[in-house]
C-alpha cells in the first residue's frame, strides 16, 4: 500500500509518501515541504498549494491520503490556514477517487513512538529509524507528514481490513 501523508499548513505543508504493508518494512518514496509566500493573498497561496499537491498525487498515485486532523487552538488565524490547507489536500485526493483519512496528533505519536505524548524530536527520531534513513527528515513538518503516512499504513489500513471483514460478515462498521 502506498500512502501520502500531509501535515497541513498554509506557510509550510509537510508532505511525504511511504510504501509498505503491516508487518513488513516501510519504505520512504519522497518527502518534502510545500511552502507558500506570506506576501501572496490567501487565495493565491491556496492555489499554489493545490497545484503542488496535485503534482505529488499524480506522481505517486497513492492508495490513500492521510491528513492530520485539525484541532482547535487559541490562534484562530493559524487554525484557519491549517484547515484550508487540509481541505486542499482532501480535494486533491477526492477528485481522483483516493480515500482520505484523518488522524489526530495523539494517534500519530502513539503509532510511531508508542506514546501519544511524544514530542517532535521523538517522532522525528522514530520516523528516521522506522524508515531506515541516514539522516532525519527536516524540517519537522516533513517528518510529521511521514509519521502520518506510517500511522495510516499501520493503523488505518488494518482498521479498513477489519471494517471490510465485518461488512462481509454482515456486522456493523464503526
Q: What does the model show?
A:
With 174 residues, the protein is an alpha/beta fold. The chain has a single domain, classed as Ribonuclease H-like superfamily/Ribonuclease H (Nucleotidyltransferase, domain 5), CATH 3.30.420. The protein has helices spanning 42-60, 76-94, 105-113, 120-130, 140-168, and strands at 2-7, 12-19, 27-35, 64-68, 100-103.
Outline of the structure:
This protein has five helices and five strands, in the order E-E-E-H-E-H-E-H-H-H. With 174 residues, the protein is α/β, with parallel strands linked by helices. The protein has one domain: 2-Layer Sandwich (Nucleotidyltransferase, domain 5), CATH 3.30.420.
What proportion of the residues is helical, as a percent range? 40-55%
Described by strand count, sense and barrel closure, the largest sheet is: 5 strands, mixed
Order of adjacent strands in the largest pleated sheet: 3-2-1-4-5
CATH homologous superfamily - what is it? Ribonuclease H-like superfamily/Ribonuclease H
What is the tally of beta strands? 5
CATH class: Alpha Beta
Number of domains: 1
* C-alpha geometry: globular
Instruction: Report the CATH topology name.
Output: Nucleotidyltransferase, domain 5
The chain-level structural class is: alpha/beta
Amino acid at each position: 500500500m502506498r500512502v501520502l501523508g500531509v501535515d497541513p499548513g498554509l506557510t509550510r505543508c509537510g508532505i511525504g509518501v511511504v510504501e509498505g504493508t503491516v508487518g513488513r518494512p516501510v519504505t520512504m518514496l519522497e518527502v518534502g515541504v510545500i511552502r507558500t509566500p506570506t506576501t501572496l493573498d490567501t487565495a493565491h497561496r491556496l492555489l499554489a498549494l493545490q497545484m503542488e499537491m496535485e503534482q505529488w498525487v499524480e506522481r505517486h498515485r497513492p492508495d490513500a491520503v492521510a491528513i492530520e486532523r485539525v484541532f482547535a487552538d487559541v490562534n484562530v488565524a493559524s487554525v484557519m490556514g491549517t484547515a484550508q490547507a487540509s481541505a486542499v489536500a482532501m480535494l486533491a485526493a477526492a477528485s481522483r477517487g483516493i480515500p482520505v483519512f484523518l488522524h489526530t496528533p495523539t494517534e500519530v505519536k502513539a503509532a510511531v513512538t508508542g506514546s501519544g505524548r511524544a514530542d517532535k524530536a521523538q517522532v522525528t527520531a522514530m520516523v528516521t529509524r522506522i524508515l531506515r534513513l541516514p539522516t532525519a527528515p527536516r524540517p519537522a513538518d516533513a517528518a510529521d507528514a511521514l509519521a502520518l503516512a506510517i500511522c495510516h499504513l499501520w493503523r488505518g489500513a488494518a482498521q479498513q481490513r477489519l471494517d471490510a471483514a465485518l461488512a462481509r460478515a454482515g456486522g456493523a462498521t464503526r
